[in-house]
Amino acid sequence: MVRGMSDEQMEPGELTERFRTFAQSVDPEPSRALPVALIAAGASVLLAVIVIIVWILAAN
Asked: pTM of whole model > 0.85?
């Protein structure tokens, strides 16, 4: 069973106004959490590597 298209139509002016509102909207500022998380993860990995190297050198 195929349904027909609806008869409801939007006026072109309304679509234009919706697009203008969308185009003029300001994007939110990018989150600063990701770089901070990457720095913290990198520091943790670096610390773990240093601890492992010191542990290996101390065992000899």
From this structure: no
